[in-house]
């Protein structure tokens, strides 16, 4: 127990004193969360800007819809703004004549504007007749399962940060210890390899938990507005399992890499494509089927899904079944391969 505690303290001190490691473990992924969180903080709430020339009840009703931002101008300027691609559509009102021009290059926004204007004009026509409408329309908003950008970004970037510290940190540690003859001295010392490995693993798990507290704490502040579900604490075992899984991948990389540069290169080849293909930075809902199938191979994809379910979607412990099984499976396979390839000396 004494040797385990001493090794753990020594490894922790080494991590704290290594400013480069601290930067890539905490600050580097945190920069992505802050930048993306601020960029997409108003996602889904922006109005479509259109140019409007003229005045009257139709223009007033368009402003009251809440989905359009009206840029008042004259008719020639309104049409020119559409031609130049500055706005997706322009509405020209001349007495009872309402004309709409929309950009052919932006069919979605253009047709949306056409639909809104047509609805407003139809209501104005019905009101002008003085007759009550024959058909009624009942509209109600409901809380759906869609997510704000910060709700998606926080679990994804947090999982990516855990994979960075797990894979790269473990790989570089193992190679460095081998090149500096630390492994050789440990082999000759009265300390079991299990004690050395478990003390390094303890620091990796503690680092993952610290990353979780830091990332979720910052994302929950007012500028970002992350709201946690009531089952958020289920993310703790997932963080621990993910840390162990990525640690085993790092041990596998470090077992055959001869230099720190080689280990860093191989680890980045694994981590960066895995992060993009696992949806750490953007949803994969609209991705092609083959890409979704490829992403299911990576443990980071399942950790992302599990973190998303328990942190913000409010799902229970059943949501951890698949992610936990995949992470445990990766841990066993990669640990087996790491043991087979492990070398005490260069």
Automatic annotation (TrEMBL):
Keywords: Membrane, Transmembrane, Transmembrane helix. InterPro entries: ABC-2_transporter, ABC2_TM, ABC2_TM_bact-type. The keyword Metal-binding does not apply. The chain crosses the membrane at residues 21-40, 157-177, 197-220, 232-253, 265-284, 320-342. One of its GO terms (cellular component) is membrane. Its main location: membrane. It is a multi-pass membrane protein. GO terms for molecular function: ABC-type transporter activity. It is found in: Membrane. It comes from Saccharothrix violaceirubra. This is ABC-2 type transport system permease protein. The keyword Kinase does not apply. It holds the Pfam family ABC2_membrane_3. Residues 98-345 form the ABC transmembrane type-2 domain.
């Amino acid at each position: 127990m004494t040797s385990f505690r001493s090794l753990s303290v020594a490894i922790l001190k080494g991590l704290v004193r290594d400013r480069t490691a601290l930067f890539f473990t905490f600050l580097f992924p945190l920069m992505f969360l802050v930048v993306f969180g601020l960029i997409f903080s108003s996602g889904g709430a922006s109005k479509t800007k259109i140019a409007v020339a003229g005045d009257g009840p139709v223009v007033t009703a368009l402003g009251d819809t809440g989905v359009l931002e009206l840029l008042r101008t004259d008719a020639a300027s309104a049409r020119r703004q559409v031609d130049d691609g500055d706005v997706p559509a322009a509405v020209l009102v001349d007495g009872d004549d309402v004309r709409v021009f929309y950009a052919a290059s932006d069919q979605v926004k253009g047709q949306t504007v056409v639909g809104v204007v047509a609805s407003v004009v139809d209501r104005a026509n019905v009101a002008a007749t003085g007759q009550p409408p024959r058909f009624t329309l009942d509209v109600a908003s409901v809380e759906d399962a869609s997510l704000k950008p910060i709700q998606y970004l926080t679990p994804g970037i947090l999982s990516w940060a855990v994979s960075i510290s797990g894979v790269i940190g473990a790989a570089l540690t193992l190679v460095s210890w081998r090149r500096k003859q630390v492994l050789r001295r440990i082999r000759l010392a009265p300390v079991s390899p299990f004690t050395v490995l478990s003390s390094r693993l303890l620091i990796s798990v503690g680092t993952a938990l610290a990353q979780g507290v830091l990332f979720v704490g910052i994302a929950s502040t007012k500028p970002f507005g992350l709201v946690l579900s009531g089952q958020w604490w289920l993310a703790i075992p997932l963080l621990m399992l993910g840390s162990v899984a990525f640690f085993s991948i790092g041990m596998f990389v470090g077992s055959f890499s001869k230099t720190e540069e080689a280990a860093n290169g191989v680890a980045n080849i694994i981590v960066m494509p895995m992060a993009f293909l696992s949806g750490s930075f953007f949803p994969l809902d609209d991705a092609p089927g083959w890409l979704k199938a490829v992403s299911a191979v990576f443990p980071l994809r399942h950790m992302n899904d599990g973190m998303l379910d328990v942190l913000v979607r409010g799902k229970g412990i059943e949501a951890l079944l698949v992610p936990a099984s995949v992470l445990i499976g990766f841990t066993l396979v990669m640990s087996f391969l790491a043991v087979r390839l492990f070398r005490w000396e260069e």
